[in-house]
Amino acid sequence: MSIDISEQQLSELGRRRGRTRWVAVAAVVAVMAVMAVGGSRMSRGPRFIPAITVVNPTPYSLQVDVQAPGERSHLGLGGIRLESTREFLEVMDQGPQWVFLFSYAGHEGGQLTASRDQLQRDGWRVTVPDQVAERFRDAGLARSIY
Fold first, then answer.
1. 115-124: which pairs have CB atoms within 8 A and are 24 or more residues apart?
2. What is the CA radius of gyration of the chain?
3. What pTM was estimated for this model as a whole?
4. Are 94 and 124 in contact (CB under 8 A)?
5. Residue 56 in this model has a pLDDT that exceeds 60
């Protein structure tokens, strides 16, 4: 038994296969593009603020931490010496509201809450409130040596 196929039919069959391949390749490329864009958005890590400056006018060397309001965990920025200024680099963005926590020798000294907008207006510069030193003084804590 033989099958008779004309050259015209073979040519038409080849064109259809070519179109089918092109559509398949275009579909694969489109799916990959959507996955790349969506995947990159999903895989982004947290935002970081390039630098935050903390001014410590108190006679206490402090530990400075930051957190978002209502969070149980906090990010330790580091220590700052008495009566000094320190710049903390690459600080994870805490969101629209930031809470700065100040401690000394294992004692909590208080906190300062500021909006991201306010921090931006202030050039990402925070001054330790006077109440922090008052709290340590009232607790009978001696001032820092350095």
1. 119/52, 123/53, 124/49, 124/51, 124/52, 124/53
2. 31
3. 0.71
4. no
5. yes
Q: Are strands 107-115 and 62-67 parallel, antiparallel or unpaired?
A: unpaired
Name the E strands within the chain. 48-56, 62-67, 75-80, 84-92, 97-104, 107-115, 125-127
- The single-letter code of the amino acid at 88 is F
- Residues 61-119: pLDDT tens digits? 999 999 999 998 999 999 999 999 999 999 999 999 999 999 999 999 999 999 999 99
* Structure tokens belonging to residue 113: 């809450």
Q: What amino acid occupies position 143?
A: R
Mean pLDDT of 135-143: 96
Strand partners, 102: 64, 110
3-state helix, strand, coil in the chain (%, to 5): 35, 35, 30
Q: What tokens does 17 get?
A: 């296969």
Cα gap 36→33, rounded to integer Å: 5
Pick 21 or 98 by higher pLDDT.
Answer: 98
